Amino acid sequence: MPEKREPAPGWPIVSGEYVVGNPESCVGVVTLGSHGLEQAAIEAGAAIAGPCHTENLGIEKVIANYISNPNIRFMILCGSEVQGHITGQCFKALYENGIGDDGGIIGAKGAIPFLENVGKDAVERFQRQIVEVIDLIDVEDIGKITQAIKECISKDPGATEEDAEEIDLDKKESGLPTVAKPDLEFTRKLIDSLEYKIGLMTRDLGLGSGVQAGSILGVILGSLLAILLVGIPVVLKVLLG
User: Fold this and answer.
1) DSSP H helical ranges for the chain
2) 85 annotated ligand-binding residue
3) Are 197 and 99 within one domain?
């Protein structure tokens, strides 16, 4: 039987929308933007399962809860990808590349993928502890998720040799915030997209106004033409006696 270790007292140490199962399980499940998959994941044997919407504070909370339980050795990413934040891809980039000196997740494509309250030591601990990240991003099929959980459990290597590590996010969040450098390329693309959509809306409004104006003008001209057509015979009759 794989060796197990005690999680940090009161684990999970950070509050969230997750559901907790057996703390000795080797599997953690992140359901990204989907809700309603958590209980099925727990019933399949996961230690903890829940959504994660943001590529900064949300990821920090997951890291804090994972490294405070040495028994969690696999992470399953499933559920719908979070648009804009692209949290699933950011998790994968974090696991593969870590963070830079500025706290930015290397290779992440989210809007603001910066960890302000979790440093390199905690990220490297997360990378050492998790032996595999299973990519089921955009999968909401409970059968496939359950199968992945059971496969991980069958490969359980036992707890990491390192003790549970606790991060007090609340304490760190009370200090001065770190100024993060935004993803300018993503922001630029977003602005371009908005300008394009506004241009289309302006064009449609202009065309609509033109059609409406044309319709009114047509009614006026038609009325004048009708008056002339009716009036001409009358005038001619009067003139001819």
Assistant:
1) 38-43, 57-67, 87-97, 120-129, 142-154, 169-173, 184-240
2) yes
3) no
pLDDT in tens, 154-203: 999 999 999 999 998 865 443 333 444 455 555 555 566 566 656 666 66
Structural domain contains residue 1: no
Domain carrying residue 193: 183-241
- Fill in the DSSP letter of residue 178: P
Domain membership flag for residue 160: yes
Return d(Cα 52, Cα 137) in angstroms, integer. 12
Rounded to a whole number, what is the distance in angstroms from the first to the last CA of the chain? 121
What strands lie across the sheet with 27-30, from one edge to the other? 19-20, 48-50, 27-30, 74-79, 132-137
Strand-pair category, 48-50 with 27-30: parallel
* Domain shared by 205 and 128, yes or no: no
Residues 58 and 64 sit within 8 Å (Cβ to Cβ): no
Q: Does this model's pTM top 0.90?
A: no
